[in-house]
Amino acid sequence: MEFLVRFETSQPATMSVDERERLRVIERERAMELRAAGILIKLWRLPGKRGGIGLWEAPDATALHDALASLPMFPWTENTVEALATHPQEKK
Amino acid sequence: MEFLVRFETSQPATMSVDERERLRVIERERAMELRAAGILIKLWRLPGKRGGIGLWEAPDATALHDALASLPMFPWTENTVEALATHPQEKK
Amino acid sequence: MEFLVRFETSQPATMSVDERERLRVIERERAMELRAAGILIKLWRLPGKRGGIGLWEAPDATALHDALASLPMFPWTENTVEALATHPQEKK
Amino acid sequence: MEFLVRFETSQPATMSVDERERLRVIERERAMELRAAGILIKLWRLPGKRGGIGLWEAPDATALHDALASLPMFPWTENTVEALATHPQEKK
Amino acid sequence: MEFLVRFETSQPATMSVDERERLRVIERERAMELRAAGILIKLWRLPGKRGGIGLWEAPDATALHDALASLPMFPWTENTVEALATHPQEKK
Amino acid sequence: MEFLVRFETSQPATMSVDERERLRVIERERAMELRAAGILIKLWRLPGKRGGIGLWEAPDATALHDALASLPMFPWTENTVEALATHPQEKK
Amino acid sequence: MEFLVRFETSQPATMSVDERERLRVIERERAMELRAAGILIKLWRLPGKRGGIGLWEAPDATALHDALASLPMFPWTENTVEALATHPQEKK
Amino acid sequence: MEFLVRFETSQPATMSVDERERLRVIERERAMELRAAGILIKLWRLPGKRGGIGLWEAPDATALHDALASLPMFPWTENTVEALATHPQEKK
Amino acid sequence: MEFLVRFETSQPATMSVDERERLRVIERERAMELRAAGILIKLWRLPGKRGGIGLWEAPDATALHDALASLPMFPWTENTVEALATHPQEKK
Amino acid sequence: MEFLVRFETSQPATMSVDERERLRVIERERAMELRAAGILIKLWRLPGKRGGIGLWEAPDATALHDALASLPMFPWTENTVEALATHPQEKK
Which CATH number is associated with domain H2-86? Predict the structure, then answer.
């Protein structure tokens, strides 16, 4: 089942540049694992924003939450999830 | 997988009392079938509203949409769906 | 360039069943042409809604508008468009 | 009488990991007491969120408030309460 | 238990003056019955609006809904209900 | 003239427990004076919230503001005021 | 006491040009009476809108409502009222 | 002085195709006059919408309103106006 | 040209009482200068709020911004500006 | 392709006056480079706000994001982007 996840990150002003960079690297690593597992399908950036939109595939909302919460930047991320149904035009 | 569905109905002023009653009866019949099938779990009314909240269980969002769209009053219903994940306290 | 388009359709209560069916058929035909042209990439349905979300690809917003306005149901459709940027993780 | 309670928690960035874990444990303990007392019926997590939705049963809004305020994480929780009426289809 | 009910009425433009007056009279009669029964406590008008705010007392949300739905103008009324808890300062 | 005042308090996380308790006590004392003066008529708590709704009576909005601003917790309170008119059904 | 009233008018498409003009004339006449009575202080138009903002003076919200409801276009007007308090800088 | 005007048009479903075309033509003619007069500077279409954004220049809000209200489609147009100030970087 | 400016102030909790008082005094002094210059016409307080509504007169939005930004409390003030047009009833 | 970008800046209260001035200078320098490159077309200030509206031209949303993110104040700026299509009246 597919989900559309809108996300916005907001790290505290007190976080050091080093910590930000460290987080960016491990965030990317975890995202790559989730892509390899077929859970994270695609990410887009929304122009001008510190966030974007992701297309995810998971058996259910519990598995989706576990994937989102496994990202290192989860504590600083505001997610909005929409469950997606197959459109009739997409059905074979 | 569980879904929380907020619904609000708004039938046109031009609909006759008979048609309204006919719709109410077949709506209830279809809802009973969906309950028997284990898809519609529970309905609540929101006080003062022409609508309410339903707890649904379906394999995915496509199956949920098919169930909601099978209700006779679907053309006059505004649904808002939220995918629900299992809360850690509910896990055995 | 990619665009995410949220759409909601609301045909007037006075439209006949035949007219609705005719519109559905020619809407699908036009959508298939836009898919073949590589402009309409994918559609999802939002469960419980008379609408959904589409992923589109067009050279710019003018070409996107022309594609959206060429759909037979455009006069009864409310679209919300978001321009999408490539996410750093998607860059080769 | 049933109530639907949407909640979102937001602990301050300055709270230590130990304090967070201590709070999680006593929050769960208090929740278990409220379940045993038949006040807290069920919790769901909203995917991607630090919060969720709960179904509560209490004699009135005052008793519900006392239950919600007895949770250790109440000072960091934003609750939105909706009073639920019995749906005609649920009546025996 | 007390409830605060915000209401806004919007009768269709096609309703005759006579029908409006007839509705106003029987609405007032029903409201008087609900006052006598101790369910409707007080009404206020919001200046400039076709509606207002009411303070109601009912055993639970189901009884409140039944009272609100028994008003002749219910089909043309948009209600928003808030459950009220006793404030600590009001406790004896 | 009556006013409905919705209020929400949000004290800073850095405020000590002692200071909170001291504020609660003098807030109550001032509220009691405003009740004795016939300005504060009734308070309700909104379940699950750090705030509620108050019914106030004051000659005009300036006198209402002076009363609200005289409460010790005013600097940490967000108020929303609605002017109330007498409902025709309440007129003798 | 002063009130700020935001208003937006929306006459039905079926109203004839003659009826619109007749309403405009008697609306203006009634407004002039309310100005002469010191109740309507000033009107502004919001550019591009079918409505605007008015400054009113009335003993209380009930008198304000009676004045607003006495305008011939009241049935087609959406009003939003704010009670105004005297600013400290305006006090003598 | 410059103004940014967001507009959305919504003609009634009952308007004939001929009337729509006639309106489109005279709307364009009036817009061209306003361009020639230096009042309408530029129009953009928002993709997927029946409306867009315009940049206008007028001595004040009254002159802007007169220009907007002189457009034949004004009765079916919802405008939102923002007054624009010169940005420091644009000052010579 | 007239402008309606809604403002809300929110000084940081860390600001000392002395600094607050100093700001209040110089804010008032600057406001008096703007009144003397015919730019600030009138201020109202919104009851229960740390802010209010002002009526301003300035040649254009740039001059209005310069006046608003010249107030000592500008860095802690959230302004919302509406351009006002002359209402037909106010024209001589 | 053109984009309309609404922006609002909010620097932390703890930032020194010197740092603010340094940022303002390098922000302006970078903006001038983007103007020279034909990417930033025009900026307007919204009166009373710490922000405004910009008209940008970029090949696509990715190039726009890169330009916006290259501004030194990007970490303290909230941007809202709208893709603009050519209006039929602007076409040659």
Answer: 3.30.70.1060
- Topology classification of domain A2-87: Alpha-Beta Plaits (3.30.70)
Length of chain E: 92
pLDDT, tens digit, 9 for 90 and up, residues A40-88:
999 999 999 999 999 999 999 999 999 999 999 999 999 999 999 999 9
Judging by DSSP bridges, how do beta strands H40-45 and H51-57 pair with one another? Answer: antiparallel
Q: What is the mean pLDDT of chain C?
A: 95
Phi, psi of D64 (to 5 degrees): -65, -45
Q: What's the CATH superfamily of E2-90?
A: Dimeric alpha+beta barrel (3.30.70.1060)
CB atoms within 10 A of CB A39: 20
CA–CA gap between residue B75 and residue A86 (Å, rounded):
19
In terms of DSSP H, where are the helices of chain F?
17-36, 61-69
Average pLDDT, consecutive stretches of 10 residues, N- to C-terminus, chain J (92 residues)? 96 84 95 97 98 98 98 96 96 73
CA distance between the termini of chain D: 16
- Percent of chain I residues past pLDDT 70, beyond the cut: 99
Does pLDDT of C37 surpass 90? yes
Distance of alpha carbon C57 from alpha carbon G53, whole angstroms: 44
Average pLDDT for chain D = 95
The full set of domain ranges for chain J reads 2-90
Cβ–Cβ < 8 Å for E40, E31: yes
CATH class (in words) of the domain with range I2-85: alpha beta
Does residue C15 sit at the B interface (CB-CB below 8 Å)? no
Least Cα distance to A13 among J14, D10, E89, G1 occurs for J14
Q: Does E85 touch chain F (CB under 8 A)?
A: yes
At residue D24, does pLDDT exceed 90?
yes
pLDDT of residue B92: 65
Residue type for I35, please? Answer: R
Interface residue J34 vs chain C (CB under 8 A): no
pLDDT of residue I5: 98
Q: Does pLDDT of H14 surpass 80?
A: no
Contact between residue C54 and residue C42 where contact means Cβ atoms under 8 Å apart: yes
In contact, E87 and F52? CB cutoff 8 Å: yes
Query: Which tokens go with E37?
Result: 């029964």
Residue of F32, F39, F87, F90 for testing the chain E interface, max E β-carbons within 10 Å: F87
- Quote the minimal CA–CA distance from A12 to chain B in Å: 28
Chains D and C in direct contact, meaning 3 or more beta-carbon pairs closer than 8 angstroms: no
Residues B62-85: what's their mean pLDDT?
97
pLDDT at F9: 94
Q: Does C7 touch chain J (CB under 8 A)?
A: no
ipTM score for this prediction:
0.95
Helices (H) and strands (E) in chain C, counts: 2, 4
* SS percent in chain H: helix, strand, coil, step 5: 40, 35, 30
Q: Does domain B2-83 have CATH number 3.30.70.1060?
A: yes
Q: What is the pTM of this model?
A: 0.95
